[in-house]
Structure formats: C-alpha cells, structure tokens
Amino acid sequence: MSKDIERTRDKLLRYRVFGTKMDRFHEMGLMFPKEKKSYDDKAKKCRVLMKNIENAIAEVDDGILSEILFQKYVLGRSLETISYAVNYSKRQIERLHLCALEKVDI
Q: What is the largest CA-CA distance in the chain?
C-alpha cells in the first residue's frame, strides 16, 4: 500500500475517533459544568471534522466506491461484511476499497 493511500486511510479512520471524542466531551461537560462551553466547542470541532470526512466520501464519483468507504469508515463494518451487503466477492471489495482510497480527497 502506498504512503498516500495509507495516509488517506488513517484520516478516514479518525471518523470513529472523532465520534468517540465528541461523546466524551459531552460527558465531560456534564461532569464539569463550569467548563461546559469549552467541551461543547471541542465537540463542535469534532462534528465539523466528521462532516468533512462524510463530504469527502460522498464526492467519490463512483457509487460503489463511496458506499464501500461509507460502510467501512463511518459505519465501521469489515470488508467481508461489506462484500455481503453489496453482493461482491471479498477480494473484489478489497480491490475496490484500494481504488476508493486513491480517489477520496481528504
């Protein structure tokens, strides 16, 4: 896997991390009401970053490629699960996944 594809993959994997952080910031705001605004601002930044990732995935020109990226990085599904969902072989999904990573601009 090339370094560009690896960097793109790492950026997309952050989607789930941002979601977890956003939940944590909400919890921290409840635990520390005096600092709630700070935590709300951090959660808002996470939402913006998540939306940027969703938009980058949606802009991938091929429907199946954007679907693979969405299911993999937003829904957190395995490539094998995605292969069942879209009725492609696992190997074909692996190939398409690499192709999709090359096309996403994030």
A: 53
d(CA 6, CA 106): 12
Range of the domain at 28: 3-103
| DSSP state letter for 71 | I
Q: Cα(21)–Cα(48) distance, rounded to whole angstroms? A: 13
Angle at 25 between CA 101 and CA 47, to 5 degrees: 40
Residue-wise pLDDT for 3-51, tens only, equals 889 999 999 999 999 999 999 999 999 999 999 999 999 999 999 999 9
Structural domains of the chain, count: 1
Q: What angle do CA 65, 95, 97 make, to 5 degrees?
A: 40
Question: What pLDDT is attached to residue 61?
Answer: 83
Read off the pTM: 0.86
Which residue reads 């190997």 in tokens?
91
CA–CA gap between residue 29 and residue 25 (Å, rounded): 6
pLDDT at 105: 86
